[in-house]
Amino acid sequence: LFDIETTGLSAKYNTIYLIGCAYHKGSEITLLQYLAETPAEESEVLEAFLELCKDFQGLLSFNGIRFDERFILDRCQKLQIPTDALPDQHFDIYKACRGMKSILNLPSYRQKAIESFLGIHREDKYSGGQLIEVYRDYLVTHESFLYDLLILHNEDDLKGMPSILPILNYADQI
């Protein structure tokens, strides 16, 4: 599974500064996070992620089909990075939850809202949008507490994805 953090919503004008991934092999779960320590390292982050993708047949994300994957593809095109390693299969939890609006009737279908509905607690208190300024400050100061905020948000998103999968059981009620 994967999640990206960006400096804005437009791949034309903004960059990816963090890609987090988690995968299960055997009895171990591995969590990896690729952070661009400078804006110039975005291509290294993308290449590391794509190299990891070579070992997998599919992706799991939250709103990744509409946002994360599209953003990655657009940035790779701009940076002339081949994307052949990106798996064809992609399951998007957000897309599945949106199909259950009639029974869930949640005020929001953001990941944090679904986690709250399911009683899942997370440490991170920031939104991706709020962290853009944190990342900009981090680029200037390299303060460890700013790094920790960036990593925690992405890590909580990654850890939250498998935790919210039980919401898909509500589809049986439709």
What string, H for helix and E for strand, traces the elements in order? EEEHEHEHHHHH
The helix-and-strand class reads alpha+beta
Poorly predicted ranges = none
In whole angstroms, the N-to-C terminal distance is: 27 Å
The gross shape turns out to be: globular
Task: Describe the secondary structure blueprint for this structure.
Blueprint: E1 2-6, E2 16-25, E3 28-35, H1 42-53, E4 58-61, H2 64-79, E5 89-92, H3 93-98, H4 101-104, H5 111-117, H6 128-141, H7 144-164
Parallel strand pairs: 4-5
Antiparallel strand pairs: 1-2, 2-3
Helix pairs in contact: 5-7, 6-7
Q: Brief overview, please?
A:
The protein is α+β, with helices and mostly antiparallel strands and 174 residues long. 46% of the residues lie in helices and 18% in strands. The radius of gyration is 16 Å and the shape is globular.
Characterization of the model:
- The protein is α+β, with helices and mostly antiparallel strands and 174 residues long.
- It has helices at 42-53, 64-79, 93-98, 101-104, 111-117, 128-141, 144-164, and strands at residues 2-6, 16-25, 28-35, 58-61, 89-92.
- Helix 6 (128-141) packs antiparallel against helix 7 (144-164).
- The longest helix is centred in the C-terminal third of the chain and has 21 residues, at 144-164.
